[in-house]
Design a protein that fits this description.
The complex is a heterodimer of chains A (651) and B (550).
Chain A: E1 4-7, E2 15-22, E3 26-31, E4 39-43, E5 47-52, E6 60-66, E7 71-76, H1 79-93, H2 112-120, H3 124-131, E8 138-141, E9 157-160, H4 165-173, E10 182-186, E11 193-197, H5 209-220, E12 228-232, H6 236-244, E13 258-262, H7 268-283, H8 289-299, H9 301-322, E14 325-329, H10 336-348, H11 355-368, H12 373-377, H13 390-404, H14 413-425, H15 436-442, H16 444-447, H17 451-457, H18 493-496, H19 509-540, H20 545-557, H21 590-604, H22 612-624, H23 644-650
Parallel strand pairs in A: 11-14, 12-13, 12-14
Antiparallel strand pairs in A: 1-2, 1-7, 2-3, 3-4, 5-6, 6-7, 8-9, 10-11
Helix pairs in contact in A: 2-17, 4-5, 7-8, 9-10, 9-13, 10-11, 10-13, 13-14, 21-22
Chain B: H1 3-6, E1 11-19, E2 22-31, E3 35-40, E4 48-52, E5 56-64, E6 67-74, E7 79-85, H2 87-101, H3 130-138, E8 144-147, E9 163-166, H4 171-180, E10 188-193, E11 198-202, H5 216-223, E12 232-236, H6 240-246, E13 262-266, H7 272-287, H8 293-303, H9 305-324, E14 329-333, H10 340-352, H11 359-372, H12 377-380, H13 397-411, H14 420-431, H15 443-448, H16 451-454, H17 458-462, H18 465-471, H19 496-499, H20 507-549
Parallel strand pairs in B: 11-14, 12-13, 12-14
Antiparallel strand pairs in B: 1-2, 1-7, 2-3, 3-4, 5-6, 6-7, 8-9, 10-11
Helix pairs in contact in B: 4-5, 7-8, 9-10, 9-13, 10-11, 10-13, 13-14
The chains are: A alpha+beta (651), B alpha+beta (550).
Chain lengths: 651, 550
């Protein structure tokens, strides 16, 4: 479709004219005119909603909201075209078969062996070995070998050594979806562990001997402690309501030596609505500070983030400080339980704060234990009530921790943002389906590529320059301050306003420090070379021309690439008054302005595969558009010359 | 008056001190004329706390039996608690502190008694003289002159003795303009934009009154700053409504009819008690110990602090935009031209002028646009967030300015030579200091108090390399461009370094800062080593070649 206008969310007066293409996998918008073709690529799987708005004089507006929080506003001249696009996108954005997803056609030009290597990068049995199991207290059980006991669990499950297959099966029958208690994290230092399960089918009075034996075995697998925490991550009211449906929570009287604890994290529906509300706030056009803060509070989003963090902190504290094992569950044990277990693991074990460890953590607590990626993130067309930003919240918890502990994580914010992007993109097979069983049936590993290998290959882009493995902040358990530090939880504009580059700090400390570190490394190498040469020279007093030329090459490489550091920008619309200022000289024509705007818009558009390269490119483009001699990008389209006096007075 | 008269109990033993982040310690409390001194009795690791009485914003006393408790709330927002055994002692100490922290005579303040323990390399009182500033200006333009019309503070009591005005306007005309402007603050040069020769001026409101008085000289003065055929902007920091109401009291704004080459824009920036209340509410929210997330956000919202930040920054950006992008000159004023006007003119300079983003340049900006421009520091900073006085004069105008600078610094972390600590230090000294810099309300008062002779300048202390190193931003790389900050709510944050400083442990953030510094220091060391080796090699090679040639 030609002559489509891409509107700028921040400023209604900046718009780009171009052509819209629909392909099997992407929506592509190519801008007219500008020398370097400015393109915006959006994966169909990223589209969360499409809205056709009332036709106006200029055309038919189409609003596309993406799961990675990009919002694209198009105006298509012909109503008919708009309708066609709308209908096609609705279909394309909601595939019905896994085979339609991008990962089955995505080919990063790797051979079979490389692909297999990629999938081997994260190996969970290696991870359990790293934790120290199997050992005297914990064994690997093959009871779920053919997914016979629980179809949403992995085949390899770790349980206390004293537990027999009979107990596992018995316990599983007493748990929702047969998700029996299994090991999530084991702390070598004090034998305390975190186990996870779903809610017991206790109703008002039901008991299950095997389940009671199971919990006792978990407690005894930690000889240092005489009780076990059972953490129900639901609000008490929700858990009680479940009793009426024959489900519920553990009765302290029936289990020996447990301490039962509710931690009120709301369910997926509340979270979905909360995110929705927050995104509405992010989308407001020029909101006042009050609109924004009020909207943020009203969404309740940060309150929910804090609830998840508090639960994680409680568990980490129990394990690290009290040396007590914890069993965590919610209803089905695949959403809140996954959030809380992974936050606790992250706090407890520095390994999970490394890049590789973080991949392992997601693979362990989310992928292998049957977090329903397909349902939660709407990869295939399904029940909209199943969709909820569960892992998004976990990723945000990690970011909040990174803000509090800037040296503790090996990776940076970009790493988190790219993982979030790919959970929705379906470009890699990792997060397909709802369980390990489904993934094996689909032969995901043979037919698609692994995200982890892709991220690992580009790991230089995801490093946190402040991280040092030997730094005191890196070691041991992270102890974030709990209440009353509500102010520690902040709005994450890097994520939710990710595509409004104009809102973010214009210079990145991370990139700057990475550049410095890179230069440092070059300097170290050069120093070595120089020392060697000096030694040689002193020894032989011979002039070695070769080395000399090498040295000169090197010195050219030196010098910081400051291009990334001195990004400037163009002013925002600070006042509506300026638009009608009549003194604009005609020489500052629209052409000049719009050229500048085009560059601007591209910065805000998405890079389709999020490769670090394109990130850097946009950095360079940033530079090109900020030349101080540029004509300015003040609004010029409005022809309010006649009414300027009125406008001034109105403000 | 002798301070001793006010100190009934100069010393108390077995006092327990509670302060943020430290366990309570027991020790001895001493009161002197200017300080509250606490020292723990432990021999091994004696801890001392020196607190200026002038830093105390308010005190509360409580009694449980004969154990008295004094809670001291400081202007730097810290709260400390002293448990003093003995009711009488406690009462005496409380009343002494109260009296000593509210001395009404400036000359009794600590700066008049302070004797520096450091070597004075440079007299800060002479570091930023208007002549130097004018010299810089005259190297790029000859359209301006230095006028000594206010030498004896006779024309405008709140202006410095010398000001920069258009060359074509003589002192006689200036006198007439002064009559036409509130508090005689006639338009003077605030900033000259070298890139395009546009200027920013500041003044107070014109005294048009209800019958629309005009003043030809005033019109001539501000028109003198326009290029032929060009227009300028007047940024009025009041809402149109407020500006119109001002006419009833003899004030007003420039009428279009009399200033046809100027476009007026109204940008509402709040003043006085609205700001003071905002600060009080904000600090209350930050000190709230409740566990409720919602309450925190709504209290933050209700304080309106960030709204004020957004308004001020927006107005400053607009001024900068007019100058840099529209190529127009700008006149900024509100009512008196001593508060919101200065916020706008000084922030616009930070956006436009790379020099203002250096330490020296920023100090010079504070001197020019705040101290010499007559911001009444003594009135505005008399009380801080814990005050309950209903005085009309107090307002965190300067703190808001510093907060705005911090917001820009956060968005451009590599473009400033100074760091957050530098801004926090200025905040502290504006409210309580051993230096005379921020005493008095204008140059007139400072000269009457003989501050340069009798007190030490803050700049004498800051501009020594030992101190400077604490305030340097390791990430700084000179950026000669105009920097346009974002004023969207998502881009503005609470300044934790000030408002949560005493509520939030900063250990991990400090460690990050140290790590940053060490990364950069190591890089510089390597660079030096490599350069030295290169030189050495080059020398050896030339020697060798010379030998060969021989």
């Amino acid at each position: 479709v030609e002559n489509v206008r891409l509107l700028d969310r921040l400023s209604s007066r900046k718009a780009a004219l171009g052509t819209l293409y629909l392909t099997a996998t992407h929506v592509i918008f190519v801008e007219n005119g500008s020398e370097a073709r400015k393109e915006t690529w959006v994966l169909h799987s990223q589209i969360s909603s499409i809205e056709k708005q009332a036709t106006t004089a200029t055309g038919c507006p189409l609003l596309i909201r993406c799961k990675n929080f990009q919002v694209i506003q198009l105006v298509i001249p012909q109503e008919r075209d708009c309708h066609d696009v709308y209908i096609s996108l609705i279909r394309l954005a909601r595939p019905v078969k896994y085979e339609e997803l991008y990962c089955f056609s995505f080919n990063p030009k790797l051979d079979k062996e490389e692909r297999e290597q990629g999938w081997k990068l994260v190996d969970l049995s290696e991870e359990y070995n790293r934790m120290g199991v199997p050992n005297n207290y914990w064994q690997i059980s093959d009871v779920n070998r053919d997914y016979g006991v629980c179809d949403s669990y992995p085949t390899e499950v770790y349980v206390p050594k004293s537990v027999t297959a009979h107990i596992i099966v018995g316990s599983s029958k007493f748990r929702s979806r047969r998700r029996f208690p299994a090991l999530s994290y084991y702390c070598k230092d004090n034998n305390a562990s975190i186990c996870r399960s779903s809610q017991p089918l206790s109703g008002f009075s039901a008991r299950c001997l095997e389940d009671e034996q199971m919990l006792q075995a978990i407690r005894k697998a930690n000889p240092g402690s005489d009780f076990l925490y059972v953490v129900d991550t639901r609000p008490k009211l929700n858990a009680m309501a479940n009793r009426a449906a024959g489900k519920g929570y553990e009765n302290e009287d029936n289990y020996s030596n447990i301490k039962f604890q509710f931690i009120g994290i709301e369910n997926i529906h509340v979270m979905r609505n909360s995110l929705q509300k927050m995104l509405e706030v992010c989308e407001l056009k020029s909101p006042s500070m009050s609109d924004f803060l009020w909207g943020l509070e009203n969404s309740g989003w940060l309150k929910h983030i804090k609830a998840i963090m508090d639960a994680g902190i409680f568990i980490a504290k129990a394990v690290a400080e009290e040396g007590v094992s914890v069993l965590v569950h919610c209803s089905d044990g695949w959403d809140r339980t996954a959030q809380v277990c992974s936050v606790a693991s992250l706090l407890l074990d520095p390994y999970y704060r490394t890049m590789k460890g973080f991949m392992v953590l997601i693979e362990k607590d989310w992928v292998s234990f049957g977090h329903k990626f397909n349902h939660r993130y709407g990869n295939l067309d399904g029940d909209p009530k199943e969709i909820s930003p569960v892992i998004d919240q976990f990723i945000e918890c990690v970011w909040q921790l990174m803000e509090q502990f800037p040296c503790a994580f090996e990776f940076n914010e970009r790493f988190l943002i790219h993982i979030q992007h790919h959970i929705y993109s379906c470009q890699f097979g990792n997060f397909l389906c709802n369980s390990q069983k489904e993934r094996r049936e689909l032969k995901i590993q043979e037919r698609t590529y692994s995200l982890w290998a892709h991220l690992w290959k580009n790991r230089a882009d995801y490093l946190n320059p402040l991280y040092r493995p030997d730094h005191s902040q890196t070691q041991g358990t992270l102890r974030p301050r709990m209440a009353p530090c509500n102010f520690l939880y902040k709005f994450w504009s890097g994520m939710y306003n990710r595509f409004e580059k104009g809102l973010h700090p214009r210079q990145s400390v991370t990139d700057y420090l990475m550049a410095v570190k890179e230069e440092t490394q070059q300097l170290e190498e050069e120093l070595e070379v120089l020392r060697e040469r000096l030694a040689n020279l002193q020894k032989s007093q011979l002039n070695d021309n070769k080395v000399k030329s090498k040295r000169q090459d090197r010195s050219k490489e030196l010098g910081l690439s400051t291009s990334n550091n001195s990004l400037a920008n163009t002013p925002q619309e600070y006042s509506n008054d300026l638009k009608s200022f009549p003194s604009r000289s005609p020489s500052q024509g629209d052409e000049e302005d719009s050229a500048l705007i085009l560059t601007q818009d591209n910065l805000k558009s998405s890079d389709p595969d999020l490769s670090a390269n394109s990130d850097q490119e946009s950095g360079v483009e940033d530079l090109s558009c900020r030349s101080p001699s540029g004509g300015g990008c003040l609004p010029s389209e409005d022809s309010g010359k006649d009414s300027d006096e009125a406008v001034f007075l109105a403000v | 008056m002798e301070f001793a008269e006010l100190i009934k109990t100069p010393r108390a033993d077995n006092v327990a001190l509670h302060r943020p982040f430290y366990p309570a310690v027991e020790g001895t409390l001493c009161l002197t004329g200017h300080h509250l001194i606490f020292s723990s009795r432990r021999q091994d690791n004696a801890e001392e706390l020196w607190l200026l009485h002038s830093n105390i914003d308010s005190i509360e006393k409580r009694f449980v039996g004969s154990l008295g408790t004094i809670i001291i709330k400081c202007k730097d927002l810290r709260i400390i608690q002293l448990d003093i055994p003995g009711m009488e002692e406690c009462l005496n100490i409380a009343s002494s502190i109260e009296a000593l922290s509210t001395l009404d005579s400036v000359t009794l303040m600590y700066p008049f008694f302070y004797r520096p323990m450091f070597e004075i390399v440079e007299d800060g009182w002479r570091s930023f003289l208007p002549d130097q500033e004018f010299e810089l200006l005259s190297s790029v333009t000859d359209e301006w002159r230095l006028s000594c019309i206010n030498k004896e503070f006779s024309v405008c009591p709140s202006y410095p003795p010398v000001v920069i005005v258009p060359k074509s306007i003589d002192d006689e005309a200036l006198r007439k303009v002064a009559m036409f402007r509130h508090g005689s603050r006639f338009p003077v040069l605030s900033y000259y934009h070298k890139k395009n020769g546009m200027v920013m001026m500041r003044s107070s409101q014109p005294l048009t009154g209800t019958n629309g008085r005009r003043c030809k000289e005033d019109e001539k003065l501000i028109n003198a700053t326009l290029r032929p055929g060009k227009r300028g902007y007047i940024i009025d920091t009041r809402s149109l409504n407020v500006a119109q109401q001002a006419r009833a009291k003899g004030g007003g704004f420039e009428q279009e009819a009399h200033y046809p080459q100027w476009r007026r824009i109204h940008k509402c920036i709040e003043r006085f008690n609205i700001l003071q209340e905002s600060l009080i509410k904000l600090v209350e929210a930050c000190n709230d110990q409740s566990h409720n997330m919602d309450r925190w956000l709504s209290k933050l919202e209700a304080s309106n602090w960030l709204t004020h930040i957004k308004e001020i920054l927006t107005a400053a950006c607009l001024a900068a935009q007019c100058i840099d992008r529209e190529g127009a000159s700008v006149l900024v004023h509100g009512t008196e031209g001593t508060d919101s006007t200065l916020q706008v003119t000084s922030l616009a300079q930070i956006i436009l002028d790379p020099r203002c983003r250096t330490i020296r340049g920023f100090e010079s900006l504070v001197v020019r646009e705040w101290l010499q421009a007559g911001h009444p520091f003594q009135q505005r900073c008399a009380q801080s967030a814990y005050s309950n006085s209903k005085q009309k004069w107090e307002a965190p105008v300067f703190l808001l300015f510093l907060d705005c600078v911090w917001q820009i610094l956060r968005q451009f972390p590599c473009s400033f030579e100074f760091n957050e600590q530098f801004l926090i230090m200025l905040f502290e000294h504006a409210y309580a200091s051993q230096f005379g810099t921020f005493l008095g309300n204008n140059e007139n008062e400072r000269s009457k108090l003989k501050l340069p002779q009798k007190t030490m300048s803050l700049w004498s202390w800051v501009n020594r390399s030992e101190e400077l190193s604490k305030f340097q931003n390791p990430l700084f790389e000179a950026n000669s461009l105009v920097i346009w900050p974002s004023v969207a709510p998502q881009s503005l944050q609470l300044w934790e370094g000030v408002f949560l400083r005493w509520n939030r442990p900063s250990k991990f953030l400090d460690e990050a800062q140290e790590e940053m510094i060490s990364i950069i220091r190591y890089n510089k060391e390597l660079q030096a080593k490599v350069n030295a080796l290169r030189r050495q090699l080059a020398e050896m090679e030339t020697d060798e070649r010379m030998q060969e040639n021989l």
